[in-house]
């Protein structure tokens, strides 16, 4: 099994991503680092712990990272997980290190890091000299946004950090263009762990008010799938940069962008791993 760390802001699709990793024997989930994002840091951190408890994985350490505003409570629910009564583990102690220190201590040459929230922790780690051999980032959109017309939520939440990561960390980027084709519809949700499906109420209501969508996007789980089974996503190198709004623009930095996947196959894989 290869080592995996997820940097996350749970978040409903983050929950699906964490569950996928926790239930996949191909990877050894060595920790979660948390960041503000969908909701504020105290909530995303608590949500990471609640999820691990539900998944029977309180062995996985949680290290708390960067603070900032949580501005997607309308999508993910005020608590970030659709207002569901997931309980905290009895021992809810966090790792004694900050996310930054945890990454510095724990990222090795054979560790994959998947970043599925704002990139603040990852950019700080880069700046303090952490080297990422394999980094997969969910974020950005090519000519496509979900927060402004041009910017995707994770990049928009900390554009400067997104720029640092895109310029310096050689990530595989999983953009909205791909994740918008990866929808967990009601049929999918009916087959997976009901605790996970129950998290999706607020998110489904939000999307169905704005589109034909009756399911949810599983953005973050698509990025984690690539860590579990490398080659799941087909990538192409683009010359890009990130502007002050957090939008991808043409630039001189070579970025490997995930462009395509066999969604029916990936969907079946997720369904199998996420059902109980
Ligand atoms: C990204 O933003 C968050 O709301 C989701 O969890 C995902 O990481 C999609 O734009
Ligand atoms: Ca996320």
Automatic annotation (TrEMBL):
Protein name from the UniProt record: Pyrimidine-specific ribonucleoside hydrolase
Domain Inosine/uridine-preferring nucleoside hydrolase stretches: 4-265
GO biological process, one term: purine nucleoside catabolic process
Keyword annotations from UniProtKB, A to Z: Glycosidase, Hydrolase
GO MF terms, alphabetically ordered: purine nucleosidase activity
Residue spans crossing the bilayer: none
Source species of the chain: Lentzea xinjiangensis
InterPro entries associated with the record: Inosine/uridine_hydrolase_dom (IPR001910), IUNH (IPR023186), Ribo_hydro-like (IPR036452)
GO cellular component: cytosol
């Amino acid at each position: 099994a290869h080592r995996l760390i997820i940097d996350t802001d749970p978040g409903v699709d983050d929950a699906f991503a964490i569950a996928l990793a926790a239930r996949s024997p191909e990877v050894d989930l060595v920790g979660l680092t948390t960041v503000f994002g969908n909701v504020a840091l105290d909530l995303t951190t608590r949500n990471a712990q609640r999820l691990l408890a539900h998944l029977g994985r309180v062995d996985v350490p949680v290290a708390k990272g960067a603070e900032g505003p949580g501005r997607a409570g309308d999508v993910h629910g005020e608590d970030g997980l659709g207002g569901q009564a997931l309980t905290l583990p009895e021992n809810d102690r966090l790792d004694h290190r900050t996310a930054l220190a945890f990454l510095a201590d724990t990222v090795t040459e054979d560790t994959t890091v998947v970043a599925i929230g704002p990139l603040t922790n990852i950019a700080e780690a880069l700046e303090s000299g952490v080297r990422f051999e394999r980094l997969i980032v969910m974020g950005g959109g090519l000519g496509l946004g979900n927060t402004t017309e041009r910017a995707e939520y994770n990049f928009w939440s900390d554009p400067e950090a997104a720029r640092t990561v895109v310029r310096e960390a050689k990530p595989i980027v999983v953009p909205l263009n791909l994740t918008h084709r990866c929808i967990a519809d009601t049929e999918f949700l009916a087959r997976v762990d009901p605790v996970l499906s129950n998290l999706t109420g607020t998110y489904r209501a939000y999307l169905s008010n704005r589109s034909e969508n009756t399911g949810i996007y599983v953005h973050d789980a698509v990025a984690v799938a690539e860590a579990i089974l490398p080659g799941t996503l087909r990538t192409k190198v683009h010359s890009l940069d990130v502007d002050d709004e957090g939008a991808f623009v043409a630039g001189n930095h070579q970025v490997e962008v995930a462009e395509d996947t066999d969604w029916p196959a990936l969907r079946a894989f997720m369904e199998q791993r996420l059902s109980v």
